């Protein structure tokens, strides 16, 4: 594998809580850069304007900094090839799109959303895979010019060969061949003038002189589109490396619907960033049993990108717990341990703000642990009996918690105000008083019917911890409701 002048990047989208899979891909790129004396770059891919937020971008930065990874170029540190946010690069993409239109690598598409949906319905009914049918591919140049000049809404699509296959070499999978007939005529430029991921990705990688693109295997099928764009622009593609996805023990994709996946969740529960990076780094190296406890420097030394496994990276929480325990016991001095505990307890102001909330609710300081301890607990020991004293029936309690868990995902900015607003809106939609909806949530997040103010507590715990506690509550309530049927 050629490694001269290495420049690699991690390019997350700020559309939600940073996923542990982002740390997994980021670590690979970081190890690759450090191994070969290259540059590791952070780029924010925020072309999805409806879901990207400044809060989520900050969470991405905070989460990656917590892992201990550092980048030489990025939106927060600048660099010679900025801006490092795609939303700030809008004017840079159009000349590349125009070049592809001029040389026949792309075409204008005027199809309405209604026509596209009708097309997809017909394809589904015929048992065909969804894909653009080429309706606007052969419009005469005069008609295209006239319709564009008239201001008719349109997008720009990639022209794809109809025969043969795209053959390329992947740094992990080796030689790959994908038939062109399975590649969609991807939208490159949206009607609002913003590029799609595929166009922006290629242009940005070219302009930022990225030499190696390492990302998850789910992007392997997109390589033909990217190679076509490079070809039509007369550019040399980077080296592609597609890493196996992180999976659960049952080989299913690691998903927040099944397990905690947010980096912030592992931070909140008191995992050390060094232990998490150690755990993730083991997927990229070959070691003997007994050599698992490794620092970042040792991971870099043992890293070998030419000897990667295509087998799924199994996220074994028990192994992570084991490694974290060893880091706590073997890698920290007593003084370091105390300092880490204090830093962890004050993360997100949980300790200080929690104590402030508890002040008006205690008569003795000794009452603080059972009242506010849930803010620092890994879990609150929920069982069906935890919900036994509520006025709502098990079925109604389950309905409330299930509805709240799903609807809280809609909150873009997670704070006391937005949480209260959403819970009041949920109560209205369910046709229930807020005082009926909140008691089950008190129990779900704190393990007790006597607790600190709910909205403040949920804000301090953070979205990822609340999500997991509600999930555990649903499991307990499902068992409780089932027992009564």
UniProtKB/TrEMBL annotation:
Residues 337-474 form the Aminoacyl-tRNA synthetase class I anticodon-binding domain. It is found in: Cytoplasm. Its EC number is 6.1.1.17. It catalyses: tRNA(Glu) + L-glutamate + ATP = L-glutamyl-tRNA(Glu) + AMP + diphosphate. InterPro entries: aa-tRNA-synth_I_cd-bd, aa-tRNA-synth_I_codon-bd_sub2, aa-tRNA-synth_I_CS, aa_tRNA-synth_I_cd-bd_sf, Glu-tRNA-ligase_bac/mito, Glu/Gln-tRNA-synth, Glu/Gln-tRNA-synth_Ib_cat-dom, GluQ/Sye. A motif ('HIGH' region) lies at residues 12-22. Transmembrane segments: none annotated. It comes from the Bacteria. Its cofactor is Zn(2+). Residues 6-322 form the Glutamyl/glutaminyl-tRNA synthetase class Ib catalytic domain. Catalyzes the attachment of glutamate to tRNA(Glu) in a two-step reaction: glutamate is first activated by ATP to form Glu-AMP and then transferred to the acceptor end of tRNA(Glu). Monomer. Belongs to the class-I aminoacyl-tRNA synthetase family. Glutamate--tRNA ligase type 1 subfamily. This is Glutamate--tRNA ligase. It comes from Rhizobium rosettiformans. The gene is gltX.
């Amino acid at each position: 594998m050629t490694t001269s002048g290495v420049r690699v990047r991690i390019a997350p989208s700020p559309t939600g809580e940073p996923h542990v899979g982002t740390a997994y891909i980021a670590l690979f790129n970081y190890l690759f850069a450090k191994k070969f004396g290259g540059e590791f770059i952070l780029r924010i891919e925020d072309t999805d304007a409806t879901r990207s937020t400044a809060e989520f971008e900050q969470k991405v930065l905070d989460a990656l900094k917590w892992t201990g990874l550092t980048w030489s170029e990025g939106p927060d540190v600048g660099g010679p090839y900025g801006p490092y946010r795609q939303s700030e690069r809008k004017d840079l993409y159009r000349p590349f799109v125009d070049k592809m239109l001029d040389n026949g690598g792309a075409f204008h598409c005027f199809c309405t959303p209604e026509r596209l949906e009708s097309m997809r319905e017909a394809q589904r009914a015929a048992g065909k895979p969804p894909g653009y049918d080429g309706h606007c591919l052969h419009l005469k140049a005069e008609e295209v010019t006239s319709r564009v000049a008239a201001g008719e809404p349109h997008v720009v699509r990639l022209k794809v060969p109809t025969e043969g296959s795209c053959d390329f070499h992947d740094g992990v999978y080796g030689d790959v061949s994908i038939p062109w007939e399975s590649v969609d005529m991807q939208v490159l430029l949206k009607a609002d003038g913003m590029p799609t991921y595929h166009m922006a990705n290629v242009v940005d990688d070219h302009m930022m002189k990225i030499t190696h693109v390492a990302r998850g295997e789910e992007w392997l099928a997109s390589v033909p589109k990217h190679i076509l764009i490079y070809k039509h622009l007369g550019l040399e593609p980077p080296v592609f490396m597609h890493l196996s996805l992180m999976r659960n023990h049952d080989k299913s994709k690691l998903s927040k619907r099944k397990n905690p996946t947010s980096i912030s969740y592992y931070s909140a529960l008191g995992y050390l960033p060094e232990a998490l990076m150690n755990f993730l780094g083991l997927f990229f190296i070959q070691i003997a049993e007994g050599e698992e406890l490794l620092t970042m420097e040792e991971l870099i030394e043992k890293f070998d990108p030419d000897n990667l496994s295509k087998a799924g990276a199994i996220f074994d929480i028990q192994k992570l717990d084991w490694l974290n325990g060893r880091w706590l016991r073997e890698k920290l001095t007593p003084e370091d341990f105390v300092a880490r505990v204090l830093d962890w307890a004050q993360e997100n102001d949980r300790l200080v703000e929690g104590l402030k909330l508890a002040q008006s609710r205690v008569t003795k300081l000794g009452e603080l642990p059972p009242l506010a301890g849930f803010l620092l607990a890994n879990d609150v020991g929920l069982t069906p009996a935890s919900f036994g004293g509520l006025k709502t029936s098990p079925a109604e309690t389950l309905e409330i918690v299930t509805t709240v868990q799903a609807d809280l995902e809609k909150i873009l900015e997670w704070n006391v105000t937005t949480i209260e607003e959403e819970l009041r809106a949920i109560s209205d939609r369910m046709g229930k008083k807020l005082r009926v909806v909140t008691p089950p949530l008190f129990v779900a997040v704190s393990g007790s019917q006597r607790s600190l103010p709910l909205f403040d507590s949920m804000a301090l715990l953070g979205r990822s911890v609340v999500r997991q506690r509600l999930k555990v509550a649903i499991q307990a309530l499902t068992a409780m409701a089932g027992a009564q049927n």
